[in-house]
Amino acid sequence: MSLHLWNSRFSITVVRQCSTIFTSSSGILKLQHTAASSSNFGASSQTQRREMSNQPRGSRDSSGSGGQGGAGGAANVPGFQHPHCDRQAMYDQPVRKQRTKGGSYDYDLIVIGGGSAGLACAKEAVLNGARVACLDYVKPTPTLGTKWGVGGTCVNVGCIPKKLMHQASLLGEAVHEAASYGWNVDDKIKPDWGKLVQSVQNHIKSVNWVTRVDLRDKKVEYINGLGSFVDSHTLLAKLKSGERTITAQTFVIAVGGRPRYPDIPGAVEYGITSDDIFSLDHEPGKTLVVGAGYIGLECAGFLKGLGYEPTVMVRSIVLRGFDQQMAELVASSMEERGIPFLRKTVPLSVEKQEDGKLLVKFKNVETGEEAEDTFDTVLWAIGRKGLVDDLNLPNAGVNTQKDKIPVDSQEATNVANIYAVGDIIYGKPELTPVAILAGRLLARRLYGGATQRMDYADVATTVFTPLEYACVGLSEEDAVKQYGADEVEVFHGYYKPTEFFIPQKSVRYCYLKAVAERHGDQRVYGLHYIGPVAGEVIQGFAAALKSGLTINTLINTVGIHPTTAEEFTRLNITKRSGLDPTPATCCS
Amino acid sequence: MLLQTSGPSRTRIFSLLHQCRLASSKPRFDYDLVVLGGGSAGLACAKEAVDCGARVLCFDYVKPTPVGTKWGLGGTCVNVGCIPKKLMHQASLLGEAVHEAVAYGWNVNDKNIRPDWCKLVRSVQNHIKSVNWVTRVDLRDKKVEYVNSMGAFVDGHTIEYVPKSGQAKSRVTAKNVVVAVGGRPRYPSIPGATEFGITSDDIFSYDREPGRTLVVGAGYVGLECACFLKGLGYDPTVMVRSIVLRGFDRQMSELLAAMMSERGISFLETTIPSSVERQSDGRLLVRFRNTTTQTDGSDVFDTVLWAIGRRGLIEDLNLEAAGVKTQNDKIVVDRSEATNVPHIFAVGDIVYGRPELTPVAILAGRLLARRLFAGSTQLMDYADVATTVFTPLEYACVGMSEETAIEKHGADNIEVFHGYYKPTEFFIPQKSVRFCYLKAVAEIAGDQKILGLHYMGPVAGEVIQGFAAALKSGLTVKTLLNTVGIHPTTAEEFTRLSITKRSGRDPTPASCCS
Q1: Which pLDDT tens digit goes with each residue over B98-138?
Q2: Which member of A30, B4, B230, B506 has the lowest number of beta carbons within 10 Å of its beta carbon?
Q3: Which of residues 36-75 of B touch A (CB under 8 A)?
Q4: B117 touches chain A (CB under 8 A)
Q5: CATH number for B491
Q6: Is B110 flagged in the annotation as binding?
Q7: What is the tens place of the pLDDT at every residue in A311-322?
Q8: Based on the domain organization, do B177 and B325 belong to the same domain?
Q9: What is the residue range of B251's domain?
Q10: Is residue A28 pLDDT above 70, yes or no?
Q11: Residue B372 annotated as binding?
Q12: Residue A462's closest chain B neighbor by CA?
């Protein structure tokens, strides 16, 4: 597996690849238990051993596992093995007893990081009676010094501002459509970047404020400081006012990640990232977006929609980790809208010219050809790194893998009283709702006597490009890799959204597919959709997949007419048949 | 083994078998199947039957409305139903989008924007014409014979019609007949109703601005029309005889009406019209009576639109000649869509007691054809059909209403999870989130099997469709809450439902993001 990681979607790839190793891709299902037992942190024996080694702290720690899971665990594994989720290992592990509350530490729990995962975990822990402190600190970005308030990536520099900018760009399109539907609106329009940024930032500030109030109401002690470990129960917090040492029985690391910068001249001095773009105080103008992960594509998409001129530089492939047919369709739909893609290209340097513009030199890695172009803005979207550096993890004995922290199926690190959730964990989808649910479930297991673990399987996600792409479950290539091409049936079709006709919007990339088992019940492995409001469309199907959706059920689900989501119920052409997946009629 | 293979391939195998059978016997009838009605159900059935090797003839005929509106092939949905309705709805949403664009920083002048009604109607009609044309081509390609005429029974196997070219009546015989004639809007029997009122059959091709409009009836057709008219800047009033959205969840229906009121649509509650007269200035004077207060009133409108329900088009079919039984103006069928006459079937809106929805009609028609001509045994499953009301905040649902769940399971055995939510996009333009609400009606015991889901908000149809598939797959509350959300969407709110009505806790959200 490639560990040279280009963008933030890598984690999903890794999940898929890891799970492939652990589950049936080896072709020998009965080896699974062994495989799981020998995997890094998946095994009950290791858990027990680890907890045994912590016995000296047993007076405060809930000691031992009592071997309640252990050998008998395999019998409880649900029949269906999903390649995304190592359920065998998950069920083999004993459920830890809950943490004792009270004791001689300052807190029962210190959560390091006040983002989606950390806040969800902290609030839930307090609800379950724990004494909790939550640290949050944002280092300013190197180029522009951008910083922000409590709430983490999603609220401040991620999903929320991104979705708002996306919406702004769609609304520009809507103005043109309104004209075609007969509204007497002058559609020669421009956005006011300053006003947009201000509106977005005002919304973010209000969310920050609500978050603070919520923490106060829920009695989570919030510390605006950067934490680093002294030992496995002691943290040094660097505050504005100085330093403070605090202790806790249990720690949850939820520090998340930040965008990477390439190691080339001028990268940090002149380039910005998604951490800066949503509060940029001037129009981005002609922008080079380096990286074709979902962040790069989304930024390029809304910049184009707002009338700027983005170019996307792609080192190898678009949307690594996603279904590649869909990824290429997304790229094509962006190209159709006038966003150029520089393929197989890496940046070499960024210089500031006298006129203030940025001269970017780059190289085609295939032809070796070098070229250059000038831009107003260069935006790095080459991936994200976990913020392990400031934590001083060696003091606590916590293992890391690259810049992430590996955890077991209960989000425990190799140190029994230290857990990690959210983007900082190794090999799991970096998504807000995943972080929130994992954080909340962890708190319930720690303090609420719950046993339920986070199920990382079949997590749906959406790329908010102008024509959105959403998916849940397996990509076509992963399904083929997992089950073999002969055992996979792909149903697909192009479709024409009713609303697209009057404004004569391109329907060329409105496409969807279902990847399914070829025989038997034809269980659906994955669903993929490119079109309007893709996230809204796929969410329900994600619940369906979790409920065991089959092709037979899908095509016997009555559609809602006229929607685009109903196209899933009308899928009837298999790739194998070679029939034309382009629709003729609209309505019967 | 054959029966276990999936739809299309199985169909093909059986159609081959059937073609062999057909070839070996001299046909007693002109056609294997005559379909009466070229709407969603009829066309789907006819095309599928041809695919299965049957010889098929399809009749379609549209009687003009009292004001003379008529249309082409394809039935209600394409011509005077879902398609034009969704386009008008979209036009109205786009007007709203222009205002939102301003809030998001676009330098667009949204003061006094007005729609060009005629341009809109022309665009909508052009789209419909193109669909009509594609439908015609499709029928030709698929070798479905089509006659643009009204067919009526002479006896159970014989259909009589007047060909377009000549005066003389023609007859054809068929082994099987499928009645798929659908329905048309009702008119009230009050003075002036047909002379001065129009219906949804007319509004989408109306050659002048509707202006101040009285919409009589608060079913989904009435509410949708009122809403797009409001969104386009006209001034609709909705007259409600008893309740809004009969048959839908009461709480959601009331929320929907409140949402419309908030947008400035006025409702005349418990009111029935008494007469419509044309004044000398050309406007329409409508007299009405409030049945609660027993008071009479009147008001003047530019347009009166009847949306008081739809009736099945049985009267021109001469069903007595075939011995087919009817109930009110509909035809009663069994689970295999057969009428009391075994070789005569009915699908679509003409069927008594089934959801009147295009996709239902299409699927039922197609499955019927497969049973008739391809040896299939699969019956149409009318349970848990999702539907959407395309009002400005849309309402979509699948499965049971809260009332139905209580009726069937008892109040003690159901749990309702509910919540208000705030769509991320609504903040900047400061759109009202007051009616953004959703709920899940579930069994209280065990894994809490979900009986119904209800959602009011943007793009409701797109949101609910997947959940309809989930419900059919046995969705439980446990699974729902462990489905990871897609952030930021509104659909993800379903995965965040945590407050039960029983708890009495406040279902209003505080934070947005954790």
Answers
A1: 999 999 999 999 998 999 999 999 999 999 999 999 999 99
A2: A30
A3: 40, 43-44, 47, 74
A4: yes
A5: 3.30.390.30
A6: no
A7: 999 999 999 999
A8: yes
A9: 193-308
A10: no
A11: no
A12: B486
